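Q: I have 281 residues here and want to know how they pack in 3D. Can you give me a structure?
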Amino acid sequence: MAEKILAHKNLVVRHSKLELMEHWAIAISGLILLLTGIFELPVAKRYYIITVPGLGWTADFITSLYLHYAAALVFSAVGIFHLVYHGLRGEKGLLPQKGDAAASITVIKSFIGLGKEPPMHKYLPEQRLAYAGMAFIILMLILSGLVKTYKNIYAPDMSHTVLLWATWIHNIGFILFFLAFLAHMAAIALRPNWPMVRGIFTGKVRLDYARHRHSLWLDEIEQKKNIPEAVPDEMAAPEKSDAPTAEPPELKQETEQPIGEKLEDKISATENEEKPPQTEA
């Protein structure tokens, strides 16, 4: 993750560039799938969509079908990449947690002044629930779409029952995906969520907003920042030994006496040797 506090800019990095690419690839390809899925029905001529400049192709079933396949390829590939990549990295911030339903109700009540919103992590509880719901809808669309594509390309004589089930699941998934898209847009339109719109385009949100609403998330970032990094073995300081270390011997400096003093010392020593011992009376 690229989460980082930029205090000098009053910003905090919420999403990495890779996450932004994933989001917009899913969003754009999903929108194309919605539109081309509608255009495969006989609605373009009926509702004069073909009269709109640049949309004359919408009445051509084959063109709409090929565009649908191309968008489905991007949609499926990015969805699988998202699942595998973030799963291997152990990123679970968007997975639903215990108590998210009750916490979502508390958050929604706070929007209309009924109570106060509690401190939040990086993602709101309703975001985690929406993520799980969207993941289920996308799984429905991909699996049923693969069955329908296999029938169109390789098995035109597929069992009618299997094809009927796949078609119904795909159609229901289409409706649910459209409703989820509207709910996503409605959530962004709520005033408390406006500061998050910036993060969808730049990956960053205001630091003061994050401290106010996502204080638990900022605490996690600051705790990670304060953890000291491991020092490589070769850079580590040598261990101190308890054994006493031998100190270098001190050099004894002999002071030389003058020659005259040396002669006097020798004479006095000789006189002491020649003097007979005195007996006590």
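Q: Anything worth noting?
A: The first helix runs from residue 17 to 39. The first strand starts at residue 4 and ends at 6.
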